[in-house]
Design a protein that fits this description.
The chain has 399 residues and is α+β, with helices and mostly antiparallel strands. It has three domains: 6-160, Alpha-Beta Complex (Adenine-n6-DNA-methyltransferase TaqI, Chain A, domain 2), CATH 3.90.220.20; 162-204 and 341-399, Helix Hairpins; 207-339, Adenine-n6-DNA-methyltransferase TaqI, Chain A, domain 2, CATH 3.90.220.20. 38% of the residues lie in helices and 21% in strands. Strands 2-11-8-9-6-5 form a six-stranded mixed beta sheet. A four-stranded mixed beta sheet has the order 3-7-4-10. Strands 14-21-18-19 form a four-stranded antiparallel beta sheet. A hairpin with a 5-residue loop joins strand 18 and strand 19. It is globular.
């Protein structure tokens, strides 16, 4: 498992160095009517993304539910692990985290003795292949959905090198995480500024035109059928929303150029979640329920992106009315008129809009590279085969 000393989780708990606890089950868990728009964050597996807790996406429970809960009450610095349904997703609560509680899908691992265990090292070890392999032994032990009980979690083992080594590992990999997080903030800022700049010209002598006169909407096809398991990623809505994962389909089939997405291409999921995405990953194959959007008549890509964003609320309302099927729009809805600013106004803001689009794309691609490097270094560091100083040199070259 590792060249470092090992410590049973149960021993760390009994010695008071670590606490491991999941969310409330049964009568103490929140009831449907106790969820509200404002309140205490209730963290589920879906709220753990990129090693961090997405509090913006989390459900909220009212004071009545919070007062009844006795277990899984989180604290800043807790490391969260998903153990039911989705098993093995890990995130750490920042020191500025708001109040939250864990759902029965999640467990917090709380460092009590930080002279023995670094919480950031703990988070990294829980993400490592060595620890994930331990989870995999237990998660399919029943005919139910994948599940690792609290008892099974406490029977696992942690690598426990010296504290200086733990700090070093956390610092070198944390530098990559911090750069990825900074890039994410840069992308958000670029998107927000793009929206603001576009809004400033939206009413400049606009004309009404259908989206289909501004761009081609090329529907993907059913490319997951008989997939080979090798080759390019088949881009489904899951890949747009969550990235590449264990369920991602690969296929080396030859497809028309219009069904290939390359970095910088615009994709529009017209079914399910109805979202618009800039594809930044390596070349992939566009599956059904997704349009590849190709501007016509030299319309800039950012213009089509902004027009689609402004239309999304209406499209989602249309999709929500389809109660008996998965929500979607039809191609005829793309023929409805949208308000397009005057050509001279578009030309005036084009340099900044094009620059913002390129800046965000570059940041997304850099983060993809950094994440790959991190995932490469993680198992070697966690096994003790790669020294921290050697990893630092590789990280210094890219951050």
């Amino acid at each position: 498992m590792s060249q470092w000393p090992q410590a049973p989780v149960a021993d760390l708990i009994s010695s008071g160095a670590l606490r491991v606890e999941d969310g409330n089950h049964g009568e103490y868990r929140p009831r449907p009517e106790e969820f509200t728009r404002h309140g205490v964050a209730y963290i589920r597996a879906a709220d753990l993304r990129g090693g961090r807790i997405d509090f913006a996406s989390a459900g909220r429970i009212n004071a009545t539910a919070r007062e009844r809960i006795r277990k899984g009450i989180g604290e800043p610095g807790d490391v969260l692990l998903t153990h039911k349904g989705t098993v093995g997703r890990v995130a750490i609560a920042s020191t500025a985290s708001p109040d939250f509680v864990c759902s029965p899908q999640t467990t917090f691992w709380r460092v009590i003795d930080d002279t023995l265990l670094d919480r950031h090292f703990l988070r990294l070890f829980l993400e490592s292949p060595a620890f994930q392999a331990q989870l995999n032994v237990h998660k399919d032990s029943s005919d139910m959905a994948p599940y690792v009980s609290l008892t099974d979690q406490r029977a696992l083992r942690l690598a426990l090198p010296g504290l200086n080594t733990q700090h070093g590992v956390a610092e070198v990999l944390g530098a990559l995480d911090d750069k990825v997080a900074a890039n994410a903030r840069l992308c958000t800022a670029a998107e927000d500024l793009s929206t603001t700049v576009f809004r400033s010209i939206a009413e400049d002598d606009p004309t009404e035109r259908p989206l289909t006169k501004l761009a081609r909407f090329i529907n993907g096809r059913a490319y997951t059928k008989d997939a080979t398991g090798t080759g390019r990623v088949v881009i489904r809505i899951a890949e747009l929303n969550s990235g590449i994962g264990e369920s991602t389909v690969l296929n080396n089939i030859e497809v028309p150029n219009d069904n290939i997405a390359r970095p910088g291409d615009l994709l529009f999921a017209w079914s399910g979640s109805l979202t618009v995405h800039r594809w930044f990953r390596p070349e992939g194959i566009v599956n059904q329920h997704i349009f590849k959007v190709i501007p016509t008549d030299e319309n800039p890509l950012w213009l089509i992106h902004q027009l689609l964003i402004r239309k999304l609320t209406e499209f989602r309302a249309i999709a929500a009315d389809k109660a008996t099927t998965m929500g979607h729009i039809q191609r005829r809805h793309l023929d409805e008129l949208v308000s397009v600013p005057a050509p001279d106004a578009i030309e005036r803001i084009h340099p900044i809009m094009d620059s913002l689009w390129s800046t965000a794309l570059s940041a997304e691609q850099e983060s993809l590279h950094l994440a790959t490097l991190r995932d490469t270094l993680l198992p070697h560091l966690m096994s003790g085969r790669l020294r921290v100083k050697e990893a630092e040199k590789q990280v210094e070259a890219v951050v």
